[in-house]
Amino acid sequence: TERRKFLASAGRDRWLVKFAGLGETGLRKKRAAAMLHEAGFGSQVVALCHGFLVERWIDGSTMDQAPLPREKLIAELTNYLTWRALNLRTCEPGASLLALAEMAVSNASEALGEKRAATLRGWLSKPTSAHVLQRVEIDGKLQPWEFLVRADGTVLKTDAVDHCRAHDLIGCQPIEWDIAGARVEYGLSDSDVRTLVEGMELAIDRDHIGFFEPCYLAFQLGLWSTAAQSENGGEKTRLAEMADRYRMPLIRFLDECRI
Fold first, then answer.
1. What angle separates helix 97-112 from helix 114-124, to the nearest 10 degrees?
2. Residue 25 has pLDDT above 90, yes or no
3. Which of 12, 42, 58 is where one domain is finished?
4. Which residues of 48-58 are buried (b: 16+ CB within 10 A; e: fewer)?
5. Which of 23, 51, 155, 165 is most buried (most C-beta within 10 Å)?
6. Distances 46 to 21, 33, 199 between C-alpha atoms, Å
7. Quick one: pLDDT band at residue 176, thresholds 50, 70, 90?
């Protein structure tokens, strides 16, 4: 669920106000938000007051309303994910590969049936690289509507400091999780992913991208399906349509994968 946000104004100035947390939790998010702004990826942080993070309001269109040319999109994702991988490393825990696999198979079984769940179980049981990857504070929410495109073409990321600490399974993960998420959200081809990974100039584990892709799809499918079950009317329909954004790609993935 999204945290409640407020829009504050005084004259021509406007600010986005949202609860970040008290004590060290809020301070940590303020530091991350300030780093994002300084790197050119986020809005200006004005203050942290009684647990509320105050940021300057940014006028712009969400990227689903103002899609970028493919080359610019990949360049923006490359720069952003590289920055997170280098600057937001952490020792905080996140779900293990086994826990992610169990979640994915369970969600697939409920949404797609046991046959496809068995296919996914077989796919995820394939050996992956044995070395332990560096965990980072992942973005975890790379959908197009989470990016703002300003009139001058500048691209900024919204809500970029706390999705890795949401009340769900994922937690902090290697940056490969966000790469897999970007592949899903923007329908990146193998060539697009290769360009992104090579542009990052980091030791990226492609086996883990492949492992994370169906896990990401299954997680999002379960997330939106569960949300739809608790609503009625038009909102239920909207959330069910969101679930279908991940249902169909997961079906295609499983129908095409080779164990």
1. 160
2. no
3. 58
4. beeebbbbeee
5. 155
6. 16, 10, 33
7. very high
Query: Whose CA is closest to 93, among 135, 128, 131, 132?
Result: 135
Q: How many domains does the chain have?
A: 2
Question: In terms of domains, do 64 and 143 share one?
Answer: yes
Structural tokens at position 15: 């600010």
Same domain assignment for residues 16 and 94: no
> How is residue 62 annotated by DSSP?
E
Task: Note down the domain range covering 149.
Answer: 59-256
Amino acid identity of 173? Q
Chain centroid offset of residue 84 CA: 12
> Which amino acid, 18?
K
20 and 142 co-located in one domain: no
pLDDT at 258: 64
- The residue type at 9: S
Instruction: Give yes or no: residues 162 and 241 share one domain.
Output: yes
Residue 1 reports pLDDT greater than 70: no
Sequence-separated contacts (24+) of 33-37 with Cβ below 8 Å = 33/160, 33/161, 35/87, 35/88, 36/157, 36/160, 36/161
Residue 181: pLDDT band with limits 50, 70, 90: very high
The tens digit of pLDDT for each residue in 27-81 reads 988 999 999 999 999 999 999 999 898 999 999 999 999 999 999 999 999 999 9
Confidence of residue 173 (pLDDT cuts 50, 70, 90): very high
7 and 107 part of one domain:
no
Q: Considering 19, 40, 58, which residue would you say is the last residue of a domain?
A: 58
Q: Can you tell me the distance from the alpha carbon of 154 to that of 106, in angstroms, rounded to the nearest whole number?
A: 40
